[in-house]
Amino acid sequence: MLYVITGPPGAGKSTWIRAHATARDIVIDLDLMALAMAGPGADHHAHSPELLRVVHRARSAAVREAEQLVDTVDVYLIHTMPQAKARARYRRLGARIVVVDPGEAVVRQRVEDMRQPGMQAVVTRWYGAHRKGSTRTVTTRASRDW
């Protein structure tokens, strides 16, 4: 099964996966990939453009490979804001879309406390797109409420 975990920055997408995935499952998390590819002491969420270029290409390759395995292993993919083309591909694959959203006020406070300031713009875009119905909600949960 393919699980596409979506939600704004700071919502708890990685935490949701840690609560549901097993050691046998495949987890594709851009931030974890970047951290694994960055030098020692790198920030968990602030990545250079050069690192992001490499990580995005690696993520694309990982997604293509993992899509071939969804019948034999669970795949958890974080995709913060999937566009129409990606959502259509996920539907074709029979993915379960999980929206992790503890609420805009909580998210904004977490981003202020733990992320770089530019992430507030991503929060604004996510909530703007979500309110317009571009993301179909299957599951909405507070991030630490399981």
Q: Give me the number of helical elements.
A: 6
Task: Find the CATH superfamily.
Answer: P-loop containing nucleotide triphosphate hydrolases
Helical amount: 40-55%
- How big a fraction of the residues is strand? 5-15%
In total, how many beta strands?
5
CATH topology: Rossmann fold
Round the mean pLDDT to the nearest integer and report it.
88
CATH class: Alpha Beta
Distance between the termini: 20 Å
Compressed to H and E, one letter per element, the order equals EHEHHEHEHHE
**Integer-rounded radius of gyration:** 15 Å
* Oligomeric composition of the shown chains: single chain
Helix/strand/pairing class, anyone? alpha/beta
Sketch the major β-sheet.
5 strands, parallel
- The CATH architecture designation is 3-Layer(aba) Sandwich
> Low-confidence parts lasting 5 or more residues at pLDDT below 50?
135-146
Q: What's the number of domains?
A: 1
Major sheet: arrangement of strands: 2-3-1-4-5
Taken from the alpha-carbon principal axes, the silhouette is: globular
Organism: Streptomyces rubiginosohelvolus
Protein name: ATP/GTP-binding protein
Pfam families: AAA_33 (PF13671)
InterPro entries: P-loop_NTPase
Task: Report on this structure.
The chain is an alpha/beta fold. It has a single domain (2-141), classed as Rossmann fold (3-Layer(aba) Sandwich). Helices cover 47% and strands 13% of the residues. The protein has six helices and five strands, in the order βαβααβαβααβ. The chain has helices spanning 13-20, 30-37, 49-67, 84-92, 104-114, 119-131, and strands spanning 2-6, 26-28, 75-78, 96-100, 140-141. It has a five-stranded parallel beta sheet, sandwiched between helices. Helix 2 crosses helix 3 and helix 5 (104-114) packs antiparallel against helix 6. The radius of gyration is 15 Å and the shape is globular. It starts with a strand and ends in a 5-residue tail after the last strand. The model is unreliable at 135-146 (pLDDT under 50). InterPro entries: P-loop_NTPase (IPR027417). It holds the Pfam family AAA_33. This is ATP/GTP-binding protein.
